[in-house]
Amino acid sequence: MKKQFPIEKFKKLQTPFYYYDTDILKKTLNTIANEANKYNYYIHYAVKANANPRILSIISQAGFGADCVSGGEIRAALEAGFPAEKIVFAGVGKADWEIELGLDEDISCFNVESIPELEVINQIAAAKGKIANVAIRINPEVDAHTHSHITTGTKEDKFGINFDQINKVINTLDSISSVKLIGIHFHIGSQINEIEPFAALFVKAIEIERYLTQRRIFLENINFGGGLGIDYKHPNSNPIPDFKAWFEIFHKHFPTKPGQKIHFEPGRSIVGQCGSLISKVLYVKEGSFRRFVVLDAGFTDLIRPAFYGAYHKIENLSSDEAQDIYDVVGPVCESSDSFAKAVKLNKAHRGDYFALRSAGAYGEIMAMQYNCRSLPKSYFSDSIQDLKI
Ligand code: LLP
Question: Fewer CB near the terminus (10 Å): N or C of the chain?
């Protein structure tokens, strides 16, 4: 399976870098488009997962919308060709300039996370003589059973408005005139690999919709957010997530009303498997109890293992020798700069190329310059052969 990596080309590039397999990305996009089209579901790619301009442009060319959480993401999405009418804007802390940008660009919807935010959007829209489309992000109090840093829909979380405040929201909406309620929005968390939390979500959504219908509010748009997980253990045999099962469960249990649109905001499930972080072995170091592989990539390039204890499959692309047990670490001056402990890898040598797989989502975009390190560059499978290097 290592053949998928053009190592000879890699040898001419400065490591570490991100390598994206555009074929996998396009196959993933085709699959999700086919599955979503069956039910007329609308997809907004969550830009936060990966805002690399080339990746964004491939996704926008496939006809998807964009889910943004900052003014910077709105700009990146527009530059990559996402039409403003397919851009939604979420986030608990939208600054005034970001709200202004959204209004000036006529984005399709603000996913509102608090009553004070609703009032500010109304003021800014009124000053511009515009009407802002808003969806209320409701905290559904559903536990996604995922890592606590990436769960968003429980009472403990800062996201969304608790349903017990919905009457206050409706009263506020009645008292302001520069916003138009066009729907509701949820997002319960990320890297969710069981269907059960999603089932709990649509049960809540049905309850909420029923209540709002009694209050004579028709929900034109219902946005179920993102969250579908990927198979970090088996990126080769399972590169495309089960979008079929994901949409099927919503379709089966959440009946769409006439004139209603259902939206999703997947991030990780679209870009996760197409990216790998490629790094070179600097040293193989014998410790008292452990054998370390010291890579030239650190948590500055891929923070997920250090930050969330996340697993990324590691492969030695340069060696077929018998396996040994290693701790794989980076060069950053922090003991948390470790990618994996006691993993089996083909025998490693200085100069070997390593791939940290499934790094397309929340990899490059979360890179940083701690220790004055450079940000990693990116290369793409469909253009690396033409690189003049
Ligand atoms: N919609 C909203 C409102 C979100 O907050 C998120 C992710 C998504 C959609 C996309 O979720 P996805 O389909 O990618 O699961 N940095 C963490 C993940 C943080 C996710 C934040 N919100 C990680 O590396 O695991």
Answer: N
Question: And the tokens for 33?
Answer: 């488009």
Q: Tell me what the pLDDT averaged over the chain comes to.
A: 94
**Ligand 1: does its nearest atom lie under 6 Å from the Cβ of 269?**
yes
Q: Is 227 in the pocket of ligand 1 (CB under 6 A)?
A: yes
240 in Cβ contact with 189 (< 8 Å): no
Asked whether 225 lines ligand 1 (CB < 6 A), one says yes
Residue 367 to residue 196: CA distance in whole angstroms: 32
Which pair of tokens denotes residue 131?
């009407």
Atom number in ligand 1 closest to CA 147:
25
Q: How far out from the chain centre does Cα 128 lie?
A: 32
- Alpha helices in the chain, H assignment, sequence order: 7-10, 22-37, 53-61, 71-79, 96-104, 115-128, 166-175, 196-214, 243-253, 268-271, 304-308
| DSSP per position, 239-256 | -S--HHHHHHHHHHHSPP
Q: How far is CA 278 from CA 6, 341, 372, in A?
A: 11, 19, 20
Which atom of ligand 1 is closest in space to residue 307's alpha carbon?
24
| pLDDT the model gives residue 3 | 61
pLDDT class of 385 with cuts at 50, 70, 90: confident
The yes-or-no verdict on residue 150 having pLDDT over 50 is yes
Q: How far is the CA of 103 from the centre of ligand 1 (A)?
A: 24
pLDDT digit string, tens, across residues 331-342: 999 999 999 999
Atom of ligand 1 nearest to the CA of 229: 15
Closest of 159, 224, 228, 225 to residue 190, by C-alpha: 228
What is d(CA 74, CA 118) in angstroms, rounded to the nearest whole number? Answer: 19
Structural domains of the chain, with CATH: 7-17+273-384 (2.40.37.10), 22-270 (3.20.20.10)
**With 90 as the cut, is the pLDDT of residue 154 above it?**
no
pLDDT in tens, 159-214: 789 888 999 999 999 999 999 999 999 999 999 999 889 999 999 999 999 999 99
Candidate from 268, 301, 365, 366 with most ligand 1 atoms within 8 A of CB, to mutate = 268
CA of 174 to the centre of ligand 1 (A): 32
AA letter at 357: R
